[in-house]
Write a structure and sequence with these properties.
The chain is α+β, with helices and mostly antiparallel strands. The chain has 4 helices and 9 strands. The protein has one domain (8-106): RNA polymerase II/Efflux pump adaptor protein, barrel-sandwich hybrid domain (OB fold (Dihydrolipoamide Acetyltransferase, E2P)), CATH 2.40.50. Helices cover 18% and strands 35% of the residues. A 6-stranded antiparallel β-sheet has the order 1-2-3-9-8-5. A 3-stranded antiparallel β-sheet has the order 4-6-7.
Length: 124
């Protein structure tokens, strides 16, 4: 299982990459492998302010639909439009081109509550 050490993680299998006050969010390699072939990513929250733990979108796979949760509070400033035509990118490149949203954080201190790579590997 690929767990990059430069990212933060949630118990719900989202990853976070921080650049200044912006957090890029996606689902982990473990999450995409558990879901199977992803056929649709539905994110309608661009421009919305959401709290940590709130649902920002849904990921539809062949066998199931899973909610995606906000790892930190903030405003969704960008949605990965490429996923609309190529949702399978989440399977093939979950930490790169398969990112889902960018969030302008309202409470960066929440990052301290996230898991590092070693902690995340313990829960998977």
């Amino acid at each position: 299982m690929n767990v990059p050490t430069n990212l933060k993680y949630t118990n719900d299998h989202e990853w976070v990459k921080v650049d200044g006050n912006v957090a890029t969010v996606g689902i982990t390699d473990f999450a995409q492998s558990e879901l199977g072939d992803i056929v649709f990513v539905d994110i309608q929250t661009e421009g919305e302010e959401l709290g940590k733990g709130e649902v920002f979108g849904a990921i539809e796979a062949v066998k199931t639909v899973a909610d995606a949760f906000m790892p930190v509070s903030g405003k969704v400033i960008e949605v990965n439009a490429d996923l609309e035509g190529a949702p399978e990118t989440v399977n093939s490149d979950p930490y790169g081109a398969g990112w889902m949203i960018k969030v302008e954080m309202t409470n960066p201190a929440e990052l301290n509550e996230l898991l590092d790579a070693a902690q995340y590997q313990q829960i998977i």
